[in-house]
Write a structure and sequence with these properties.
This protein is an alpha+beta fold. It is built from 7 helices and 13 strands.
Length: about 290
Amino acid sequence: MQPQRALLADGRWHFQHGPIDLVIGAEGEPCAVEAAHESAWARFQNVLPELVTELRALRQPVRGPCPLQGAIARRMWLACRPFHAQFITPMAAVAGAVAQEIIASYDSAGITRAWVNNGGDIALHLGSAGSGASIKVGLFADLARFDPADGRLPIDADFTVTADLPVRGIATSGWRGRSFSLGIADSVTVLARTAAMADAAATQIANAVNTDDPRIERRPANTLKDDTDLGDTPVTVGVPRLGAEQVQVALQAGAARARALQRDGLIHSAVLVCQDQCAVIGALLEIGLERSNC
C-alpha cells in the first residue's frame, strides 16, 4: 500500500499509510501553511519504511544503550527509557513519536498553530511562550459509548492548552483502545512536553489502573495479534461492571503512578477514567477542564 492523502472539507489533511492514520490542521499565513503541509507530506511518505527497517529492535524491551538509528525510532526508545524498570518496548510510544515527527514541519515562520492527531495521540505546535496561541482539546472518556450509527462523538470534557504551558503532546490509553493494556481503565489521557512522552506515560498509567477480580478477562497478547511486542503477557479483553470500591482501588493505583511521574517531571497532568469515576492529576483543572463529573 502506498501513502495516501486527502484534503478534508474543513481544510484539514488526512494522511494514511498502513497502520498510520493522521489528521492534520494548521493555521497561519496561507503560503506558509501550504508549504508546511507539503513538507509534512514529503516526510510522512518515508515514516513507515523507516520504522519497518528497525521493527525487530523496536519490539525488544528497553534496556542498555539505545540500539536504534532512525530519528523516530530513537525518539520512541528515549521516551520509554524512564520506564525501563518495568517491561516496556519502544512501541509504547510509536503513535506519539510519529505525530511528533510530522509536527516539526509546522515549526516555521507564518504558522500560528498546528496539530497532528494520530488516532488520538496528538502533537501540537503553538509557538513559544508569549505567542498567545492556544488550542482546545476534547476529551472522550469511554469509546464504548460511541454509536457509529449516530455518527457523532460528544465529548465529556475539554481543556485548553496555551503556548505558555510546557505541553506539546497529548495521548490516551485504555483497555478499549487501539493498543493492548494490562489495566482496566476506560481511558487515561496524559499531557506532557512531547507527544512521544505522553504516549509512553499514558500506557504506563493505564496499565497501573488495575484491581484483582476473577471476572476480568485477560488473554495472552500473542493469541490476539501474531506480531505483538508483548509476547504472552496477559492483556485485558473484558471488564465486567465492578463495585464502586473496586473501581476506586484501581483508580488510586493509577493515580499514584501518575503522581510519581509528575514529580519526576515526566508528565504535566492526567485524567484517569474507569466506569464513570475519574481522577485528575496535576493542573488540568487550571487550564479549563469543563463539563466533567470528576
